[in-house]
Each structure stands twice: as structure tokens, then as C-alpha cells.
Amino acid sequence: MKKFIAGFVLSLTAIASVAAAPELPGVPAAAQGGQVPLKVQVVVSRYQGEKKVSSVPYTLAVIADGDKTSLRMGVDVPVPQTVFTPPAKAGETVSVPAASFTYRSIGTNIDCTAKSSETGTFKLDLAVSDTSVFMTPKDGNVTPTAATGMPAFRSFTSTFHMLLKDGQTAQHTTATDAVSGEVLKLDVMLTVLK
Fold first, then answer.
1. What's the confidence (pLDDT) of residue 80?
2. Which end of the chain has fewer CB atoms within 10 angstroms, the N or the C?
3. What totals of helices (H) and strands (E) does the chain contain, helices first?
4. What is the edge-to-edge ordering of all strands in the sheet holding 152-164?
């Protein structure tokens, strides 16, 4: 019985010492011994000169030191194609054009993993790809899509790493579209969920 009581007291002492372990200043308690829930916001913005043309935010729930989080957002767009069918009657040499469609996926794909550190920062590993239909500008400038009458597709892909603290926002990318002159900016914001 004495051995049982001694073992029970020893177990309680160990539990109390773990519960009373000092926390590191500025580091979330969960980061000091477990996985931390994060909110990662990725904003894809497009500018024509100084004017913002579009701004699309994407929010992901990410677990630091956990598995990869993925987001797939898109739509399949029909792309017209002309197919020439064989003549309907014997002896005719004229092929008849017929319209058909194939589909192309456009949209945004984001993959994110996060790793915590003892300093309170989080290393984000991000892969972002964005595909969209290129529209003819309203100013009347001739573009490849206007000249052919067919749709054009533009794409952007970036794989990168960022170190962010709770509540911090950083701009990763500024890239200029060679055809339209639009500037694409990629901003990332991290929030630790309490």
C-alpha cells in the first residue's frame, strides 16, 4: 500500500511540474509543445498602372507542423475549335466546317505547409498558380486575342518560402504581364488562432 501511495504522489508531482513549466515569452503556448492552428490569407491583386483592377483573397486553415493544406478554385472554360467533316454526299469535294469545343481549366491553386519555431515565427512553404482568360482591353489596343478572335490564357506560378509572425503581412511577388502590362502582386498574411 505504501508503494502505491508513493507512486501516486510521484505521478502527481510529475504532472504538476509539467503543468507549471515556464512558457517562452512571445511564443504561443501551443507552439511550445504541440501543433498551432493558423489562418493564412493569400491575396492575388492585379494593377493597370496605379489602378487596382482586381483583388481576390483566399483564406486557408493551416496547422503548423502538420500536413499540407490545399485549395483548388476554378472553372472549366469552353474553347472553340473548328473541325472539317467529310462531304455529306458522294462526289462532293467540299468539307463542311463544324464547331466543337474542348475545355480548359482556369482558376487558382494554392498549397501551404507551416513550421513553427521557438522565436515565434512561422515558416510558410507556399505554391501558388493562377490561370485566367485574357480579355481584350477596352481601350481598343490590338492584342493577340483580338487579332485572331480566339481566347488567350495567361498563367502565373510561384513556389516560395516566407517567415511571418502572428498578424504580419508581407508581399512576396510583383510580376508584370508581358502582353497586357498588368502587374500582379501576391500578399500573404498570417494569423495565429487562439
1. 79
2. N
3. 2, 8
4. 69-85, 96-116, 122-134, 152-164
